[in-house]
From TrEMBL:
Species, as recorded: Candidatus Onthenecus intestinigallinarum
UniProt domain Flavodoxin-like: residue ranges: 74-190
Protein name: Flavodoxin
InterPro entries linked to this entry: Flavodoxin/NO_synth, Flavoprotein-like_sf
Keyword Zinc: no
Keywords: Signal
Amino acid sequence: MRSIFALLASFLLALPACAQEAEPSVLIAYFTWAENTVIEDEAASLASALAHYDNMGDSRSGVDATSSASLLMPGNTAMMASHIQRLTGGELFSIRVEQPYPSNYDDCLDRAANELDDNARPALSTHVENMEDYDIVFLGMPNWWYSCPMAVLTFVEEYDFSGKTVIPFVAHGTGGISGSVRDMSASLPQDCTVLAPIGVYRPEIPTCGPAVEEWLKTLDLPFALNDSFEVTE
Ligand SMILES: Cc1cc2nc3c(=O)[nH]c(=O)nc-3n(C[C@H](O)[C@H](O)[C@H](O)COP(=O)(O)O)c2cc1C
């Protein structure tokens, strides 16, 4: 009899903890060129990016080709992802293709253009084992040809996003977010909630921490953010 009372008491004591809402699980998945290429000749690859910016009249990116080219780790989208990771405590996941992209800017542009024309779904070499565990998925991508890399669509279509919240973030050149978020969202199911994205222009990537934090604060996330950039930087 006494053991039944003890059992009942421990059940009642545990109730308040059970009644508390569990914190949602957060995944931060991103695609970035630097983690999807193999660099053979770093100087030549950087020069090809610089020549491209020159051709486009994108002088702000040309000033610091080494970081803006986003060829060297960490890539621009990866840097945004690491800020989000620091502030939310989510799990980072790098979307990687089986066949790396060229490290020459123009060659990469050509392959990306062909994939877009073909509505291709490049095969991925990385996979999320437990997607069902995540309620909130931050999804990062560069603007490629006014859209998203087709590998992002391969990723989105691989999993069931029903009932999840997807929060896009985009690294871009002079074109802004363009159609990247729109095209990615078209591959999501109707009952997936897509929140307002942030876009960061490539020369602003090295200093974008506070902007990322301000954006996260506008999203009304169901958990508190970690330490602030305003305090620590
Ligand atoms: C294949 C390719 C296509 C691109 N197309 C565009 C574009 O249409 N508009 C734009 O603003 N930037 C474009 N960019 C620039 C990238 O969006 C920008 O450099 C971004 O910061 C790269 O992010 P990452 O380092 O994460 O790959 C393109 C870059 C590449 C490599």
